[in-house]
Design a protein that fits this description.
CATH superfamily of the largest domain: Type I PLP-dependent aspartate aminotransferase-like (Major domain)
CATH class of the largest domain: Alpha Beta
Shape: globular
Distance between the termini: 21 Å
Strand order of the largest sheet: 2-8-7-6-5-3-4
Helix content: 25-40%
CATH topology of the largest domain: Aspartate Aminotransferase, domain 2
Strand content: 5-15%
Number of strands: 12
Number of helices: 12
Oligomer: single chain
Largest sheet: 7 strands, mixed
Structural class: alpha/beta
Number of domains: 2
Radius of gyration: 20 Å
Length: 355
């Protein structure tokens, strides 16, 4: 099965990372307190921030979940987007807290930041995924700055979490990280992950950046031993290998451009992508299309209501994308299959919850 369904990095980590993990085997009988502290320091050094401004998590998923628990309540809703990464909304609903999901803009599929800000009354947490998963759209720095100002004017008590899981893939000139905003404003947190550009999805390492007191509120919801020795060793080696990151950016860009060009030439609209995935308007229901692709050995992403005529496809290696494009074009050239009569249900294996 060609797995292009979870925005994983098909290239994986570099050889330095694999060697570091092997070297760490001798210490797996020891708790990771000391080495976790070193990782926090190295992340801070890489970002040129104070170590007190960094909080590690078991993937950024744990950070997102902890923020929902820390900042939302029955009378303090979560403001999010539809569609976006589902974990914050799923956890809020599980807790019995209100979720306000603002639809993306028709056509462009961009986040409707004005509508999100207008919906912020009494908000406990506002979740912004930038670039957004699954649409692969991105907002520039001026848009994010203006949004934060507007939202906090509507609800000064709200906390705004900006998820930058795909930060390293963005090349748009007007984009920049919101980390400076998080360092200057106690109502803003930025989350990042080692799962994407670093190729460490299975090792579960992420982090949050913000002011010390804000992060302390989040850290109270985190497991003290949340990152293993092997994961920490891998993340440390990844940070120390910037050439590998540059290679991953280039490989993703080349394979992504190939995919976009091939599918547009076939007559299908693709939203301009800014991550390691593309969102393609297939002009038919995603559910039978997804099943037909799987029958041909290609796994693509789950449905993202309400965009049921769109398919999200992860960018793999060039060889994988050549194979994937062939399958996509074959399936799209055939009559549309029957739409399932049962409503869509999320997978039960937890794959939707990781980043």
């Amino acid at each position: 099965m060609l797995r292009l369904d979870s925005n994983e990095n098909s290239n994986g980590p570099g050889p330095r990372v694999l060697a570091a993990m092997q070297d760490a085997f001798d210490d797996v009988n020891r708790y990771p307190f000391q080495i976790n502290g070193r990782l926090g320091d190295e992340v801070a050094h890489a970002l040129q921030v104070d170590p007190s401004s960094v909080e590690l998590g078991c993937g950024s998923s744990e950070i997102l979940g902890a923020a929902v628990v820390a900042f939302t309540a029955p009378d303090r809703p979560l403001i999010t987007v539809s569609p976006t990464f589902e974990l914050p909304a799923d956890i809020a609903r599980h807790l019995g807290h209100t979720v306000v999901a603002v639809p993306v803009r028709t056509g462009s599929l961009e986040l409707d930041l004005d509508a999100m800000a207008a919906s912020a009354t009494n908000a406990g947490l506002i979740y912004v995924c930038n670039p957004n998963n699954p649409t692969s759209t991105v907002h520039g720095a001026s848009d994010i700055d203006a949004f934060v100002t507007k939202a906090l004017r509507v609800e000064p008590r709200a906390t705004i979490l900006i998820d930058e899981a795909y930060h390293e893939f963005v090349a748009r000139p007007d984009y920049r990280s919101a980390i400076p905003l998080a360092l200057s404003n106690p109502r803003v947190i930025v989350s990042r992950t080692f799962s994407k550009i670093f190729g460490l999805a299975g090792m579960r390492v992420g982090y949050a950046v913000g002011q010390r007191e804000t992060l302390r509120t989040v850290s109270q919801q985190l497991d003290a031993l949340r990152i293993s020795r092997l994961s920490t060793a891998a993340a440390l080696a990844a940070l120390a290998d910037p050439d590998h990151i540059a290679d991953q950016q280039r490989l993703n860009r080349e394979a992504r451009e190939f995919t976009v060009r091939a599918m547009r030439e076939a007559g299908f609209e693709i939203i301009e992508p800014h991550g390691n995935f593309v969102m393609m308007n297939i002009r038919r229901d995603i559910r039978p299309f997804q099943a037909a692709c799987r029958q041909r050995g290609l796994a693509i992403a789950r449905p993202f209501p309400p965009l049921l005529n769109y398919a999200r496809v992860t960018i793999g290696t060039m060889a994988e994308m050549e194979r994937a494009v062939t399958v996509l074009r074959v399936v799209l050239s055939q009559p549309e299959g029957p739409v399932p009569t049962t409503s869509y249900r999320a997978p039960s294996d937890g794959r939707r919850y990781v980043c």
